[in-house]
Design brief:
alpha+beta, Immunoglobulin-like, 8-stranded antiparallel sheet, 5-stranded mixed sheet, 35% strand, binds zinc ion
Amino acid sequence: MRRGIRRPRATAPWYARTEARLAAVVVALLLLAAAAVIVRSDDAPTSDDIAVRPTSPTATVGASATTVAAATGPSGTPSASGTPATLAPTPVPLLLDLRPAAVGQGETILVWVHAPGAFSVTLELRDDRFTLLPEGEVFWGVVGIPLDAALGAAELTVTARSSSGEIRESLTEGYEIISVDRPVDHITLTEEVASVLTPEAAEAERALRARLFSEFDRGRRWSTFFRIPTAGPMSSQFGQGRSYNGGPVGGFHTGADIAAAEGASVVATGPARVAWVGEMPIRGISVILDHGAGVKSGYHHLSAAAVVGGDVVEGGQLIGQVGATGLATGPHLHWELTVWGVNVNPLTWTLKDFTP
Ligand SMILES: [Zn+2]
């Protein structure tokens, strides 16, 4: 067999030669195994699943899918009864991947399920239930872990159903919520600025946001990393505890602040439909973008918006200008990212690719 393997160069490196030997050994073993199968083939067809290879969108996961199918999947070989083989889909065990499996408070987790043939897959996590989105044989979704989520070991469950709603398979997997060190942000507010922060304003804004986050576009619009929406230093990170005028920490910073000059360009962090443009009592002039799949981004304290509700924008497209409207001590962009209404660290989305 070794002589039959042609190499482009006469002097193959040592590892190539080792590979060739290994390949020869593997082929010999496979031939032996096939011979053994043929000898026992009158019994129930349980041993040879090599032909049953589920296709998968990524090579890495596809390899493990094949391994699992070969190890535990029922055989797809025809029966020995003499009837023609039927090409019924072979049930393949669910494969679950959590990205990451240890997720920080205020961060995003992507749940990826390989479930060929399933009609729907649901996810139960932290008392919430999500319907995962189908893309080929994969069902996936992103979920935001709240900043105040309990630390430690947690569990999630995915359930695959047939078109009749019957449960095909259910899988429970552990993950971990870890703490992220975020310092307290001490802010001094002048009386004039502080006068904006009344209980009435806070309640009006909460009610408005509850309405804005009650609906989401279904399909994912993004295909790669998100981008930072304006140039400038990060003046306050997401999730920092906030103390106003030396008082106790009262809540967390719901976005990331980027200091920039009044009028500086603000661009969309990713492809989106403009879900809302208006003025909030505390966040000031705001644009909310819907990226689909439960993900929205918010741009606040703007001096002006450059889009209107319903516009469809590309990542990097101008959507407004930096300002200091609402509760702001100076011009800056307050940039938020929410996943199903849960505020998460937007910067993570510029560093990690949350695509299935
Ligand atoms: Zn802010």
